[in-house]
Amino acid sequence: MNQRQISRINELAKKSREIGLTPEEKEEQHELRKQYILAYRRSLTAALDNIVIEKDGKEIPLSKKESIKS
To answer: Residue 6 in contact with residue 35, Cβ under 8 Å?
Structure first.
């Protein structure tokens, strides 16, 4: 997700509030939001994968839980 795509998401959100979107713009907005959420989840997962808990002086990485699919 690059800055241009994020700017486009914001433009479509503003236009949606002000005058509404065409069906094509709604589809574009939906696809851009899906991409944004996917990028956010990947970033969050990467950050959580780097968290280490120290227990009794030992570094133990966080264990993975069952994945939640939406």
So the answer is: no
Q: Residue with structure tokens 């939001």?
A: 33
Taken in order of first residue, the domains within the chain and their CATH numbers are 3-61 (1.10.287)
- Decide: helix, strand or coil at residue 64: coil
Beta-bridge partner residues of 60 = 53
Dihedral angle of Cα 49, 51, 54, 55, to the nearest 10 degrees: -50
Q: What is the DSSP string of 22-55?
A: -HHHHHHHHHHHHHHHHHHHHHHHHHHHT-EEEE
Predicted confidence at residue 51, as pLDDT, reads 80
Residue 12 has pLDDT above 90, yes or no: yes
Query: What pLDDT does residue 65 have?
Result: 63
Is 60 within 8 Å of 54 (Cβ atoms)? Answer: yes
What confidence score (pLDDT) does residue 42 get? 95
